[in-house]
């Protein structure tokens, strides 16, 4: 192609951009135009435009379906979070509080493993709940956890081996992704860690709205139930 031809083609392209209605009065030209198609023989301009529109519509449908799936997932998460929040608000002791938390995370949220590290060694826990909670002094947290807790915010994603070991101990090898939530309310209270065998379950790109909300409610309730109970509260517990 010579420079003159290229310049002429550029001028034609510029003219058509400025006059998109040009072919409306020259439909015979449209019928003569043939475009190469990588999927087969050359097709007319109208056929090519129709194919492009079909592809774009398919892409839009896929995007819409993706948004619908996300909306459904968020609705389900909201409902689980709502029920868990109400259960935590009704608990009148640390043992019942953590029992409700663990039951909900395992049964409703379908979590594969949960780790709770608390700083309050005076918390009265019984049975299986006591086995699932570790008491750790705030100044003696395992060093690998420092990067996760630096921002004081919930973290989701694939963790390093030493981080998983510090959180989940003998369950660490089966955890492929996790959510880690610092528990804080007027001071540090501990850490809630939720693990999944699915590496894509907790992604670094996912939002932390729901898990942060659970952590905030749990933190406030831990403080409330650790206070000395009044005679009336003791009767209700």
Automatic annotation (TrEMBL):
<keyword id="KW-0175">Coiled coil</keyword>
<dbReference type="Pfam" id="PF04340">
    <property type="entry name" value="DUF484"/>
</dbReference>
<dbReference type="InterPro" id="IPR007435">
    <property type="entry name" value="DUF484"/>
</dbReference>
<dbReference type="InterPro" id="IPR029016">
    <property type="entry name" value="GAF-like_dom_sf"/>
</dbReference>
<protein>
    <recommendedName>
        <fullName>Phytochrome sensor protein</fullName>
    </recommendedName>
</protein>
<feature type="coiled-coil region">
    <location>
        <begin position="43"/>
        <end position="70"/>
    </location>
</feature>
């Amino acid at each position: 192609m010579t420079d003159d031809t290229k310049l002429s083609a550029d001028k034609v392209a510029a003219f058509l951009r400025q006059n998109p209605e040009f072919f409306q009065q020259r439909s015979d030209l449209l019928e003569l135009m043939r475009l190469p198609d990588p999927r087969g023989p050359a097709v007319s301009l109208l056929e090519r435009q129709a194919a492009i529109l079909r592809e774009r519509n398919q892409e839009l449908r896929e995007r819409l379906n993706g948004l619908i799936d996300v909306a459904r997932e968020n609705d389900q998460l909201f409902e689980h979070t709502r029920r868990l929040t109400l259960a935590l608000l009704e608990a009148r002791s640390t043992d019942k509080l953590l029992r409700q938390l663990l039951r909900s995370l395992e049964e409703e949220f379908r979590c594969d493993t949960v780790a709770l590290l608390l700083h309050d060694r005076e918390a009265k826990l019984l049975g299986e709940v006591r086995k699932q909670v570790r008491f750790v002094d705030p100044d003696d947290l395992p060093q690998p956890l420092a990067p996760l807790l630096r921002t004081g915010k919930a973290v989701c994603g694939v963790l390093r081996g030493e981080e998983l070991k510090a959180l989940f101990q003998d369950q660490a090898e089966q955890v492929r992704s996790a959510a880690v939530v610092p528990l804080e309310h007027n001071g540090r209270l501990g850490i809630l860690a939720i693990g999944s065998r699915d590496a894509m379950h907790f992604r670094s790109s996912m939002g932390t709205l729901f898990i942060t909300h659970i952590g905030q409610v749990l933190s406030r309730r831990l403080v409330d139930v650790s206070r000395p109970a009044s005679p009336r509260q003791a009767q209700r517990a």
